[in-house]
Amino acid sequence: MPVTIYDIAEGxxxxxxxxxxxxxxxxxxxxxxxxxxxxxxESLGYEPHASAQSLARRQxxxxxxxxxxxxxxxxxxxxxxxxxxxxxxxxxxLVYAARTVATVEGQLARAVQxxxxxGVLLVSTPLSDxxxxxxxASGRPVVLVDSYHPDFDSVFIDNRRGGxxxxxxxxxxxxxxxxxxxxxxxxxxxxxxxDGYLDxxxxxxxxxxxxxxxxxDWDHEHHGYTRFAGxxxxxxxxxxxxxxxxxxxxxVFAAADVMAxxxxxxxxxxxxxxxxxxxxxxxxxxxxxxxxxxxxxxQPMAEMGRLAAEKLVRRLETPGAPAQHTVFxxxxxxxxTTGSPVLELA
Amino acid sequence: MPVTIYDIAEGxxxxxxxxxxxxxxxxxxxxxxxxxxxxxxESLGYEPHASAQSLARRQxxxxxxxxxxxxxxxxxxxxxxxxxxxxxxxxxxLVYAARTVATVEGQLARAVQxxxxxGVLLVSTPLSDxxxxxxxASGRPVVLVDSYHPDFDSVFIDNRRGGxxxxxxxxxxxxxxxxxxxxxxxxxxxxxxxDGYLDxxxxxxxxxxxxxxxxxDWDHEHHGYTRFAGxxxxxxxxxxxxxxxxxxxxxVFAAADVMAxxxxxxxxxxxxxxxxxxxxxxxxxxxxxxxxxxxxxxQPMAEMGRLAAEKLVRRLETPGAPAQHTVFxxxxxxxxTTGSPVLELA
DNA sequence: AACGAGGATGAAAGCGCTTACAGGCCGAGC
DNA sequence: GCTCGGCCTGTAAGCGCTTTCATCCTCGTT
Lengths: 346, 346
Known about the structure:
Chain A has three domains: 5-48, 434 Repressor (Amino-terminal Domain); 58-158 and 304-329, Response regulator (Rossmann fold, 3-Layer(aba) Sandwich), CATH 3.40.50.2300; 159-300 and 333-338, Response regulator (Rossmann fold). In chain A, 44% of the residues lie in helices and 15% in strands. Chain A contains 13 helices and twelve strands. The first copy, chain A, has helices spanning 5-12, 16-24, 31-44, 50-57, 73-88, 104-111, 129-138, 159-172, 188-203, 227-239, 257-269, 287-292, 301-317, and strands spanning 62-68, 92-98, 119-123, 142-145, 153-157, 178-182, 213-215, 251-254, 279-281, 296-298, 325-328, 331-333. In chain A, the strands form three sheets. In chain A, strands 2-1-3-4-5-11 form a six-stranded parallel sheet. In chain A, helix 8 packs parallel to helix 9. Chain A is elongated. At the A-B interface, helix 4, helix 5, strand 2, helix 10 and helix 11 of A face helix 4, helix 5, strand 2, helix 10 and helix 11 of B. Chain A binds a DNA duplex through helix 2 and helix 4.
């Protein structure tokens, strides 16, 4: 029923090798045979069998992308960039989206299975040294996005710098008591953003105050990168100052937009509106932030995805090249939550 | 270097057939040999070769999802549902995201290639009879999401009903002049939503007025499903009533949330705020709508994805079953743009 | 003690394609 | 006229795994 190269070979009175040659370009085939083969293939509706080609060629034409949770706008943007680049080089995209950070390991394992894909993009997932060793040993090309390991190509953002810029912006608006909303302590980017926050405080001659920082206890399975976690974190922060509103932070830096969005909600319920009663700055610049009027630090997500795919494709062609790292600088996008009246149309 | 079943066979002093049996469960193998094989495999770090398995088993364990543009929040939600379901049955997801509606054909062609995947989910893409015939002939299982064709399983929403509910809501709020913002005429769901709009007008004893309806001229490559298209459509609508504000529509139904969001922007620039000067209702309930306070008709996107994947998986097991169609009812979510003060935390 | 039933295992034939390697053929060079 | 060098094309050996079919044992029966 399905037509194979044998059928074509028979129809065109040539060997299967010749048919294969015709379809693979390389190798010289006389014009007459080529035409004949093509004609027969056309009339039979031939289409090569992907699995068979993968097996024989020892490459699949597939790239897998491993991301923690499909839910996140951040990952979607990254994947969009990846797609863009992959389309250009005739690679198809296999998406391994975990439900929680804990299940990423499992997805990664599937993604790197022999014969599954030619390379993998690992997004927002720190690589333990042990896992790194396993990966390196497997020899499969890997590019890290939004995380870093010396042995693998990577594309990430200067989180620390971003934290600093966020706080500088707030300090510039006159704030002295600036709160910090952190997702899980386990998130390296979040820790770096906090470091940036601390840097800026120090530079401004302000004391770091533990009473102004809260790390969420919620949604640990997503490392706290959820609206609800932000909502709860903000509630917790506000609760600390019940009865003494004068000591309350006048601004808050949330280490992720989703958290900031939840925080805005919590603040709203407590009767606090940004920027009237409180300034808020997030991090990422996901699409919803535009509508929420959230000031934030923009990560060029799609661009990062595109570059990561680019690096991966290059590495497929040139294995063994030393690892290269690219770091992007986040840019401040001032919106209503820090007093900017700007409306945009993304 | 890579370890194959031959290596294990040799190490465990059995034939490759036995090794294969051990890994595939079925077929009886004595406990002692099984242990031996497993032990050797373990120590050698064996992992089956996906392409080889695909070729021999004549199935890939992959499902492809074809969607027009990765950009859209709608598709991402659908995919999330798909992922959820697929994880459960050990299938991996191949994503074919087109850049524009015009390139969907090409992506579909790749998705259905022999040996590429076991089945395909085609999202928001109407099937021409010719394409339908080709697909049917290929015998590859297909499930349609957000579109309909009698010959294939499908999951979609009652767009017409949604349009009606939207307008009923507006009529209920006292509106008599209700505008309509349409993406491309080529979008079947959009046309159905318009039909619903017309139904409701008629039921309310209101005349349908072409002067109140505008179909966007922009972003045709995305069938008008963009913020910018909504922005322009709204501008065009408002322009028609320049100089005679009393004749202006007091409410607008945009056939897609993205359009509604752009429309809100255009209205804002014209000094019109919802719901003060104008009510707005969208369709879809994408995430940003929550933040924009947009009243809309919610589609259970993830649920639709999940069900579609479910149908596809079932069909893999039971080919030849007659096509089944499932239609969901959209639900009205009243928010600020039609006067509801509700704040939510998704 | 002979026989049959089953269970465990191996041999081998694919799955559909790629790719050395080896001819075969033909014109050019001497 | 003969040889040599190229160009085409065919032969055949995989790629790594699954799966029938046949074979060989081991017991339980009678």
